[in-house]
Design brief:
The chain has 377 residues and is α/β, with parallel strands linked by helices. It folds into 2 domains: 197 residues, Alpha-Beta Complex (Quinone Oxidoreductase, Chain A, domain 1), CATH 3.90.180.10; 141 residues, Rossmann fold (3-Layer(aba) Sandwich), CATH 3.40.50.720. The chain is 24% helix and 23% strand. The chain contains 11 helices and 17 strands. The strands form 3 sheets. Strands 3, 4, 5, 8, 9, 16 and 17 form a 7-stranded mixed beta sheet that branches. Helix 4 crosses helix 5 and helix 7 packs parallel to helix 8. It is globular. Pfam families: ADH_N, ADH_zinc_N.
């Protein structure tokens, strides 16, 4: 832990991606001190999210340090930071909350004008990076870059949590589980007795299922062609599974047939824009609502016949489940502590930092939900 003197550059291990799809390389990186309104965090645990995998496979900005679902301990703070002090336990978040911009003050959204989605792998304050390897800049990801023993984030992109909560568990509330629960509760407002269809049974989709179950949905249908995911889905609230590969007819027709005209709520959690159209077609006329959560690797544009909307269907986007991170995330942590929500069962693998490439391979092969990577120093 740093002393109260001015923070200095820290040299530590980080898993650096040097090119798209290339194995991450464990490097000695120099981590700069936090600048004004920033904090430097000693990462305790971090998990691999599918958006990390998608960006690693496709993004053009390299070298880069991925990772954004993380928990850690504040090592030092920059000028102007009053909310955090050395030793605080925190969760990182990929969208911030400045609490003072028009959108933050509106009460209508969790999108922040100041600390929205990160761009170009650079820090918000000065458009520079806080990582270097032998003098070469290494870029950030989602404003977090938690695949490093130490990282620097804007203080608006961290949430203080109780010193008594298990950091190795709650790190997955930084993105996936929270995104799914919030999509069911905040964005869709799933109603009791409703029929819900979830396309994609990864961590996000199964978190939607948990949220729908807790809201009292009567049918929660999971759509996925991965037998391993389908086998485990019912423990998270899925009542039945549909494997599209087993049907000759379009899956939207299957859903409409087995739900007497379509579902009340559909959730696209696979990151496939064609699946958004399928989800819309699977909703019922009049009030059917489709929520899209996935981040597509390719083909970001979607298309849908206007008649789907004329007949009363709605399409909504969901970023981080509508949660305002600083305002709302502590309540989710409290729900976990009080055993009102489950998160432990989403952790299928616990790995050491040196095994990070194994985590990427497991996710590529569809053999995990969340791999939690435990840092050590």
């Amino acid at each position: 832990m740093a002393s109260s003197s001015t923070p200095q550059v820290i040299t530590c291990k980080a898993a650096v991606a040097w090119g798209a799809g290339e194995a991450l390389v464990m490097e000695e990186v120099e981590v700069s001190p936090p600048q004004p309104l920033e904090i430097r965090i000693k990462v305790v645990s971090t998990s691999l999210c599918r958006s990390d995998l998608s960006a690693w496979e496709t993004h053009a900005i390299f070298p880069r340090i991925f990772g954004h679902e993380a928990s850690g301990i504040v090592e030092s703070v920059g000028l102007g930071v009053t909310e955090f002090k050395e030793g605080d336990q925190v969760l990182t978040v990929f969208i911030g909350e400045c609490m003072s911009c028009k959108l933050c003050k509106s009460g209508k959204t969790n999108i922040c004008q100041v600390l929205g989605l990160e761009r170009k792998g650079l820090m918000h304050s000065d458009q520079k990076t806080r990582f270097t390897v032998k003098g070469k800049p290494v870029y950030h990801y989602c404003g977090v870059s938690s695949f490093s023993e130490y990282t620097v984030v804007h203080s608006g992109c961290a949430v203080k949590v109780s010193p008594h909560v298990p950091l190795e568990k709650i790190c997955i509330l930084s993105c996936g589980v929270s995104a799914g629960l919030g999509a069911a509760w905040n964005v869709a407002d799933v109603s009791k007795g409703s029929t819900v269809v979830i396309f994609g049974l990864g961590t996000v989709g199964l978190s939607v299922a948990q949220g729908a179950k807790l809201r009292g949905a009567s049918r929660i249908i999971g759509v996925d062609n991965n037998p391993q995911k389908c086998e485990n889905a019912k423990s998270f609230g899925i009542t039945e599974v549909v494997d599209p590969s087993l049907y000759k007819e379009p899956i939207a027709q299957v859903i409409k047939r087995i739900t007497d005209g379509g579902a009340d709520f559909c959730f696209e959690c696979a990151g496939d824009t064609d699946m958004i159209t399928t989800a819309l077609q699977s909703c019922c006329d009049g009030w059917g609502l489709t929520v899209t959560l996935g981040v597509p690797k390719v083909k970001p544009e979607m298309s849908a016949h206007y008649g789907l909307f004329l007949t009363g269907r709605t399409l909504k986007g969901s970023l981080f489940g509508g949660w305002k991170p600083k305002t709302d995330l502590p309540s989710l942590v409290e729900k976990y502590v009080n055993k009102e929500i489950q998160i432990d069962d989403y952790i299928t693998h616990n790995l050491s930092f040196d095994e990070i490439n194994k985590a990427f391979n497991l996710m590529k092969e569809g053999k995990c939900l969340r791999c939690v990577i435990h840092m050590s120093r």
